[in-house]
Amino acid sequence: MRPADPILVHDLGGLLAPGRVLARPIDRLGRSADASIYRLIPEAVVRPKDLAEVRSLLAYCTRNHRHLTFRTAGTSLSGQSVSDDLLVELAPHWKAARVLDGGRRIWSQPAVVGAHLNRMLASFAVRIGPDPASLDAAMIGGMVSNNSSGMCCGVAQNSYQTLDSLEFLLADGTHVDTARPGADERLRHERPALYASLLALRDEVRANATLAARIRHKYATKNTTGYSIQAFLDYDRPADILAHLMVGAQGTLGFLAGITLKTVPEPPARATGLVFFEELAEAGSAVAPLAQAGAAALEILDSASLRSVAQQHPYPFPITPRTAALLAEFREADGEGLAAAVAAGRKELGRFRIAGDVRFTTDADERAHLWKMRKGLFATGGAMRPPGTVLMTEDVAVPVARLAEAITDCQAMFADYEVPDTMIFGHAKDGNLHFLLWEDLRRAEAVERYGRFMQVLVDLVVGKYDGAVKAEHGSGRNMAPFVKQEWGEEAYALMGRIKRLLDPAGILNPGVVLNDDPRVHLKDLKEMPRITDLADRCIECGFCEPRCPSREVTLTPRQRIVVEREIARLGALPGPESSVIRASLLADFEYQGVSTCAGDSMCETACPVGIDTGALVKELKEAKHPAWARRLAVHVAERFASTSAAARFGLRAAAALRPLPLGPWLLDALTGVAHAAAPGLVPRLSPGLDVPPASPPLPSLGGDAGERRVVYFPSCLNRIIGPDEGVATPHAVVDVLRWAGLSPSYPPGLGGLCCGMPFGSKAFSEAAQLAASRVAAALWIATREGRDPVVTDASPCAGFLQKEAVRILAESGRVVRVSDFSVFWAREVLPTLAAVPRRPGTAVLHPTCTLVKAGGLPDLLRVAQAHRENVVIPKSAECCGFAGDRGFLVPELTESATLAEAAEVRDVLAAGEADLYSTCRTCEIGMSRAVGRGYLSIVHLVHEATFPRA
Question: Where are the domains of the chain?
Answer without folding.
Answer: 1-90, 97-265, 269-474, 835-946
